[in-house]
Amino acid sequence: MERISWNQYFMAQSHLLALRSTCERLMVGATIVRDKRIIAGGYNGSVSGGVHCIDEGCYVIDGHCVRTVHAEMNALLQCSKFGVATDGAEIYVTHFPCLQCSKAIIQSGIKKVYYASDYKNHPYSLELFKDSHVQVEKVELVQVSIHLEQAIESNKSND
């Protein structure tokens, strides 16, 4: 069985985090990594203790759900809350970051953004990333489920 790459591993982690999303419109996950170690993760959802979109529907103003904290912001806020430095880190996001999250990523000192799916890619985000020397790379997620099934079967046969 062939091993998945580090990029695939961290992107798979972001997709797993997205399964915790409480947003009905788009499930997004983000994983912040430094030196091949996960330092934080986040998914899009309501503020802690708040009403969830999956329970009462999205609260949409001007085409945006204002109830939701984005996955990237949740991951960055976890770092802030627990005193974890993000300078020089990388972030893996299931979807291209919105303009506000792009600015927060830059301000946090993250130097590389990996994303799996295009989603309203704002041209100004790309310009800001370029001007701030933040590398951006699209990483398609391989079918990790196939690798998981192979690993499970392999482990069963070794029992």
Automatic annotation (TrEMBL):
Among InterPro entries, the record links this protein to: APOBEC/CMP_deaminase_Zn-bd (IPR016192), CMP_dCMP_dom (IPR002125), Competence_ComEB (IPR013404), Cytidine_deaminase-like (IPR016193), dCMP_deaminase (IPR016473), dCMP_deaminase-rel (IPR015517), Deoxycytidylate_deaminase_dom (IPR035105)
Residues annotated as catalytic: 72
What are the CMP/dCMP-type deaminase domain coordinates in residue numbering? 5-127
Q: Which domain of life is it from?
A: Bacteria
Q: Which UniProt keywords apply?
A: Hydrolase, Metal-binding, Zinc
Q: Which PROSITE patterns match?
A: CYT_DCMP_DEAMINASES_1 (PS00903), CYT_DCMP_DEAMINASES_2 (PS51747)
A GO MF label: dCMP deaminase activity
Which parts of the sequence bind Zn(2+)? 70, 98, 101
Q: Which cofactor does it need?
A: Zn(2+)
Spell out the GO cellular component terms annotated for this protein, sorted alphabetically and separated by semicolons: cytoplasm
Q: Name one GO biological process term.
A: pyrimidine nucleotide metabolic process
Q: Which PANTHER family match?
A: DEOXYCYTIDYLATE DEAMINASE (PTHR11086:SF18), DEOXYCYTIDYLATE DEAMINASE-RELATED (PTHR11086)
Q: Which family does it belong to?
A: Belongs to the cytidine and deoxycytidylate deaminase family.
Q: What protein is this chain from?
A: ComE operon protein 2
